[in-house]
Amino acid sequence: MASKTLPYLFSTLLFLLQLQFSAGQTEVKAAYWFPGTGLSVSSIDSTLFTHLFCAFADLDQTIYQVTISASNSAQFSTFTQTVQQKNPSVKTLLSIGGGDAVAPTFASMAGQASTRKSFIDSSIQLARANNFHGLDLDWEYPSTATEFTNLGLLLNEWRAAVANEATSSGNTPLLLVAAFFYSSNYYGLSYPIQAITNSLDWVNVMAYDFTSPFSWSTAPNLTGAPAALYNPTSQVSGDSGIAAWIQAGVSAKKLVLGVPFYGYAWRLVNANDNGIFAPANGAALSDAITYNEIKDFIAQNSDTTTVYNSTFVTNYCYSGTTWIGYDDTQSISTKVTYAKGKGLLGYFAWQVGQDKDFVLSQTASSAWGA
Fold it and tell me: Left (φ > 0), alpha (ψ -120 to 50) or beta: where does 276 sit?
């Protein structure tokens, strides 16, 4: 009897501990910070946020331990202390991964219990050593059914390890978050919903990069809303993604809506045909264009026309044959109001260094309210 009762009691206590810290998050007003964007950590207006993500820690391809590069060590180690000078209550999370280049390494790591343990233990140690309040997984993306199954195992084992570490150390448990695809279904493959519900404090729903002028887009030669909240022509939208997550079984209170502080620039075929879905000859610029750069483009080109489209909930502008789809104050405010109205936990932005004079961050914070 005792041999059965003790594991039961332990699992019950673990479950209650999970509920305790999960229930502690009442709202999330967040943004990622990424080095090299021209915004120093000390310049972040942390009063506009409840949580800030420091991106990115690396995953060693051989031993599967989480590390911080030497070039980022000084900024990452003082990140929490620095942003709390302006806002002592802001919570910080160390983000791991980022981008599709590290996806194969994540897949290899998650495939075995021993390598998952290496990842998990090193992540917790690194977060504590650098005074972060939590950890954020950015695996873009698992691409097979086996990888999604392994993701579920990783999340469950990570949560158990975080709970055990908190119990043994007496510390507040680390937050555990992940940035996932905009929908619970990734091209026919389903995220491990039960593990997500049991193990994560919340999911950062990446409701952006729906379209672009680049080859990875489904329609690079048609202008579009890169982060449409609604889309009357397809199911690819922020609203459809949120609905899919909730229908799959993830509580709205575990979902945080992502918004971009950047856009994409197309080259119009005809300067006079300049609406959404206008024909284009690919990209006007070689990469994404930050909100800082978009506002500079508008200021430097006096003939620029700016438009807010409430059907898609997007902004766009055009000058000559250059057409830029992006989020400005109107679309950001509408999206944040939507998130609150849907009962979501909050919103996050990629990324704060792209936000000229914190205009979008201020708009988002005001739209959410106190």
Answer: beta
| pTM for the structure as a whole | 0.94
* Contacts made by residues 121-126, CB under 8 angstroms, sequence distance 24+: 121/161, 122/65, 122/66, 122/67, 123/57, 123/66, 123/94, 123/96, 123/158, 124/161, 124/162, 124/165, 124/174, 126/57, 126/66, 126/67, 126/68, 126/94
CA distances in angstroms from 147 to 159, 246, 248, 269, 299, listed in the order given:
18, 22, 19, 41, 46
pLDDT in tens, 290-300: 999 999 999 99
218-268 pLDDT, tens per residue?
Answer: 899 999 999 999 999 999 999 999 999 999 999 999 999 999 999 999 999
Active site residue 157: no
Confirm if 194 and 200 have CB atoms less than 8 A apart. Answer: no
Nearest partner of 28 among 48, 55, 56, 57, judged by Cα: 48
> Quick check: is 276 in a domain?
no
Residue 314 falls inside a structural domain: no
Domain contains 297 = no
H or E element at residue 159: helix 145-169
Q: What is the pLDDT of residues 103-157, one digit of tens each?
A: 999 999 999 999 999 999 999 999 999 999 999 999 999 999 999 999 999 999 9
Alpha-helix residue ranges (DSSP H) falling in 233-318 = 238-248, 291-300
Of 140, 147, 157, 293, which residue is the catalytic one? 140
Whether the bond into 347 is cis, omega within 30 of 0: no
Percent of the chain whose predicted confidence (pLDDT) is above 70: 94
Which 3 state secondary structure label does DSSP give 78? coil
Q: How many domains does the chain have?
A: 1
Q: Tell me what pLDDT residue 23 has.
A: 46
Q: Answer whether 298's CB lies under 8 Å from 306's CB.
A: yes
Indicate whether 350 belongs to any domain: yes
CATH code at position 359: 3.20.20.80
Structural domain of 249: 28-260+328-369
Paired tokens of 61: 């391809």
